[in-house]
Design brief:
- The structure holds 2 protein chains of 2 kinds.
- Helix content of chain A is about 50%, strand content about 15%.
- Chain A contains 12 helices and 11 strands.
- In chain A, helix 2 (about 35-45) packs parallel to helix 12 (about 305-320) and helix 4 runs parallel beside helix 5.
- The longest helix of chain A has 29 residues, at about 1-30.
- Chain A is globular.
- The relative contact order of chain A is 0.14.
- Chain B is built from 13 helices and 4 strands.
- The longest helix of chain B has 27 residues, at about 200-230.
- Chain B has a two-stranded antiparallel ribbon.
- Chain B is mainly α.
- Chain B is about 75% helix and about 5% strand.
- Chain B has a single domain (about 5-310), classed as ABC transporter involved in vitamin B12 uptake, BtuC, CATH 1.10.3470.
- Chain B starts with a helix and ends in a 5-residue tail after the last helix.
- In chain B, helix 2 packs antiparallel against helix 10 (about 200-230) and helix 4 packs antiparallel against helix 5.
- Classes of the chains: A alpha/beta, B mainly alpha.
- Chains A and B meet through strand 2 and helix 4 of A and helix 2, helix 10, helix 12 and helix 13 of B.
Chain lengths: ~350, ~325
C-alpha cells in the first residue's frame, strides 16, 4: 500500500515526461532550422563520404583559438570526428600573426604522421614548407584558397584547396535585399562600407554589394568607403556620409561590427529608422539588432560547418575520392522575416 | 667559472634530458630523427637571437627591438634579392642593416645615456612602423632557391639553420671567454664606473654590443625569411620576450657582469623542446602557454634558490 502511494507520483512524472518528449520531437520535425538546411545542402555538394579506415587519425592546424569564430570551427571539426568515429587532434598558433609558430606546429604534426592534415594558413606562404614535408610522407592535406598554389606546386606540395566561403555572394545577397526594399518606395541613394582595402574578403564582399545594389535601376551608389573592419572607423565614415548625402537611404557594410557602428552614427545624426543598414557574419549582437528591427539584414555562414566539411573532404580524399570543385558553405540572408529560424545558427 | 655556474648548467642539461624522456614516454613520435631535426630548426632562430641578447643583458642592458629588427632586416634582404642583388649580397645587406639598427640603439644608450629599456622600446616601434610603411603590410615572397635552402637545406644529416645557430653559439662563446672584447664587456656590465677608470672604453663596448645584437637579430631573420620564403612586417612579433626568457633561464643575470652563452643555448632548446613536445602529445593550445609560463618561472626560481645558498639574505 505504501509502496503504491510512493510510486504514483513517479509514474505520473514519467507519463508527463513522455508526453513532453513527444511534443518536443514533433516540433523539431515540423521546423527544420535554416542551419540544418544549409548544412545538409553543403554536405550534398561533396556527396557520400566513404567510411574511414579504422584508427583514422586527422590533425588540424587552426589560425588561433582566441576568438569565437575559430572556436566554433573547432567544435565543427570535433563534431565531425565524433560522427565518423575518427581521432582528431586540433592545434592553433598562439596569436593571429604567429606565422613561424604555426609552421612549427604543422611540421610537428607531420612528424607525428597523421592520415590527413587540415591547415588554415595565416599567410599565403607560411605553411608551404610544411605541406611539402606532408606530401613527401604521403599525408593528405587540405587547406583554403589563401595558399599561393603556384608557389606551393613549385616547392613540391599539392594540397587540396577549398574556397568554402563565398564572400562575393554574401555582399550581393545583403545589398540585393536592401535594394529590393528601397525600390518598393521609389529607390534612392546608397553607400557601401568595405573592410580593409586589398584584403580578399573585403574586395569580394564590396564587389558583391555593388552588383547587388545594381540589380535595381532605381538605386544609385553614391559612395564606397573603407571601414577597415573597425567600429570606430565605420562610425566616422558613416557620420561623414550623412553629412555628404543627407538623403542617403541605405548602407551595406562588409561586416556586422561596422554595420552596428553605422547604426550608432545614424542615431547620433538624428536619422534613426530612416536608413536601411545591412551587415555580414550574423554575430550575436547583430541577431538582437535584427530581431528588434534596427538592423535590416545580415548574412550568416557557419564556421562550424566549415570544420565539418573539411573533415569530410579529408576523409573522402584520403580514400581516393575526387573532390568536386567549388565546394561551398552556404551563406544565408538573415532578416526580420527569418531571424526566428536562425536561433541555433553556429 | 664559479661553482654555481657549473651546477646550474648541469641542472639545465638534466632538465632538458628529463623533458626529452617525459615526451618520449608520452608519445612514440617524439624520439625520432625527423622530430629531433624539427626541434633544432625551430629553436635555431631563438638560439641566434638569444645569443645576441645574452651579450646585451651581460652589460646590464636590454634590447626590446630585436623582433622589429628581424622584420625590417628581412624586408631589406628580400627587397635587395628581388631587385637583382645576388643572394650573398642581399643577405649581407640585410645583416648590415640589422647592425645599423643596433648602432642607433647603442648610440642612444651609450652616447646619450638614455635607459636601454626606453631607447629600444622606442626603436622597436620605429623599426616595426618602417617595416609596415615600406611594404604597405604586403609580404615580399618568391625568393631565390639558393637563399631558401638556408632555411630548408641540410648539411649532411643536420639542418643548415641549426648548423648556423651552432656556429654563432661557438663564436660568441669564444669571444666572451677568450678575447679582450669579452673581458671588457663583462667588466663594463659588472661595474661600468670602475671599468671606465681602468681605461676600458665602456661606451664603445656598449655600442658594439647593441650592434652585435642587431646583427644576430638580422641573422635570425635570414633563417626565418629563408624558411618561410617570405619577408613580412609582422615577422618576429614577441621574439624579444622569448629571447629574454631563454637568456634568463640560462642563468645570465639582469644585473650584468656575467654572460652564459651555453646557458642561453640550453634555455632556447628547452623552450623549443617544450613547444614541440606539447604539440606532439597534443596539449590544447590554451594550456601550452600555461605550461610554458610555469616551466619558465620554475626554472628561474630553481636558479635563484641555488644562488641564495651562497648569500646571507
Amino acid at each position: 500500500m505504501n509502496m503504491k502511494l510512493a510510486l504514483k507520483p513517479v509514474i505520473s512524472f514519467l507519463a508527463m515526461a513522455m508526453v513532453l518528449g513527444i511534443a518536443i520531437s514533433g516540433a523539431a520535425e515540423v521546423q527544420t532550422t535554416l542551419f540544418e538546411k544549409s548544412r545538409s545542402e553543403s554536405f550534398a555538394m561533396l556527396g557520400d563520404v566513404p567510411k574511414p579506415k579504422s584508427g583514422f587519425r586527422m590533425g588540424v592546424v587552426l589560425i588561433t583559438l582566441s576568438n569565437p569564430y575559430w572556436v566554433s570551427m573547432k567544435n565543427g571539426y570535433e563534431n565531425a570526428a565524433k560522427e565518423f568515429g575518427i581521432t582528431i587532434d586540433i592545434q592553433a598558433a598562439p596569436q593571429e600573426n604567429s606565422t613561424t609558430a604555426q609552421l612549427n606546429i604543422l611540421e610537428n604534426m607531420v612528424a607525428k604522421g597523421y592520415d590527413a592534415i587540415a591547415a588554415h594558413t595565416i599567410t599565403a606562404h607560411n605553411l608551404i614548407p610544411g605541406f611539402v614535408k606532408a606530401e613527401k610522407k604521403g599525408i593528405t592535406t587540405v587547406t583554403d584558397w589563401r595558399v599561393d598554389m603556384k608557389a606551393a606546386q613549385e616547392a613540391g606540395a599539392n594540397p587540396i584547396t577549398l574556397g568554402l566561403v563565398e564572400y562575393y555572394v554574401q555582399g550581393k545577397i545583403g545589398a540585393q535585399y536592401i535594394a529590393q526594399k528601397l525600390a518598393k518606395n521609389g529607390g534612392g541613394k546608397v553607400a557601401i562600407i568595405e573592410g580593409l582595402p586589398g584584403a580578399p574578403q573585403s574586395e569580394g564582399r564590396r564587389n558583391g554589394a555593388k552588383e547587388g545594389f545594381q540589380t535595381e535601376s532605381s538605386i544609385e551608389i553614391v559612395s564606397v568607403q573603407p571601414g577597415n573592419w573597425e567600429r570606430q572607423k565605420a562610425f566616422d565614415v558613416t557620420s561623414n556620409l550623412l553629412q555628404a548625402h543627407p538623403d542617403l537611404k541605405g548602407i551595406m557594410c562588409a561586416n556586422d561590427i561596422m554595420a552596428l557602428a553605422a547604426l550608432e552614427a545614424i542615431d547620433a545624426g538624428g536619422k534613426t529608422g530612416q536608413i536601411l543598414v545591412g551587415g555580414i557574419d550574423l554575430i550575436g549582437q547583430a541577431k538582437e539588432a535584427i530581431a528588434s528591427g534596427r538592423l535590416a539584414c545580415s548574412v550568416a555562414f557557419s564556421p562550424f560547418v566549415i570544420g565539418e566539411i573539411v573533415t569530410r573532404t579529408a576523409i573522402a580524399a584520403s580514400q581516393g575520392k575526387a573532390i568536386p570543385e567549388n565546394l561551398r558553405v552556404l551563406s544565408v540572408l538573415a532578416s526580420k522575416d527569418n531571424i526566428h529560424l536562425l536561433e541555433d545558427w553556429k | 667559472m664559479t661553482q654555481i655556474d657549473r651546477f646550474q648548467r648541469f641542472g639545465l642539461t638534466v632538465f632538458l634530458l628529463l623533458l626529452g624522456i617525459f615526451f618520449s614516454l608520452m608519445s612514440p613520435y617524439f624520439l625520432t630523427w625527423e622530430n629531433f631535426t624539427n626541434i633544432l630548426v625551430q629553436s635555431a632562430v631563438l638560439i641566434i637571437a638569444g645569443t645576441g641578447m645574452t651579450l646585451v643583458i651581460a652589460t646590464a642592458g636590454i634590447d626590446l627591438s630585436i623582433g622589429s629588427i628581424l622584420a625590417l632586416s628581412g624586408i631589406v634582404m628580400a627587397a635587395a634579392m628581388k631587385s637583382g642583388f645576388g643572394v650573398p649580397a642581399g643577405a649581407v645587406l640585410g645583416i648590415l642593416s640589422g647592425a645599423l639598427m643596433g648602432l642607433f640603439n647603442g648610440i642612444g644608450t651609450a652616447t646619450f645615456g638614455i635607459s636601454p629599456f626606453i631607447v629600444t622600446l622606442g626603436t622597436a616601434g620605429i623599426y616595426r612602423a618602417l617595416s609596415l610603411i615600406l611594404t604597405d603590410a604586403r609580404p615580399i615572397y618568391g625568393l631565390p632557391m639558393a637563399f631558401r635552402s638556408i632555411g630548408t637545406g641540410r648539411l649532411g644529416p643536420l639542418p643548415l639553420s641549426a648548423v648556423l645557430a651552432f656556429t654563432v653559439v661557438c663564436l660568441a662563446y669564444l669571444m666572451i671567454s677568450s678575447t679582450r672584447f669579452g673581458i671588457n664587456l663583462r667588466a663594463a656590465g659588472d661595474n661600468p664606473e670602475g671599468a671606465f677608470r681602468m681605461g676600458i672604453p665602456v661606451r664603445r663596448v656598449l655600442v658594439c654590443v647593441y650592434m652585435l645584437s642587431g646583427a644576430t637579430a638580422a641573422l635570425a631573420s635570414v633563417v626565418v625569411t629563408a624558411r618561410l620564403n617570405t619577408a613580412e612586417a609582422i615577422a618576429g612579433l614577441g621574439l624579444e620576450l622569448e629571447a629574454i626568457a631563454a637568456v634568463v633561464m640560462g642563468g645570465t643575470s639582469f644585473f650584468g657582469g656575467e654572460a652564459s652563452i651555453r646557458g642561453t643555448f640550453l634555455g632556447a632548446l628547452i623552450i623549443g623542446t617544450l613547444a614541440n613536445g606539447l604539440t606532439i602529445i597534443n596539449v590544447p593550445s590554451y594550456y601550452q602557454q600555461l605550461v610554458i609560463g610555469i616551466v619558465f618561472i620554475l626554472a628561474v626560481l630553481a636558479d635563484r634558490m641555488k644562488r641564495r645558498e651562497n648569500k646571507t639574505f
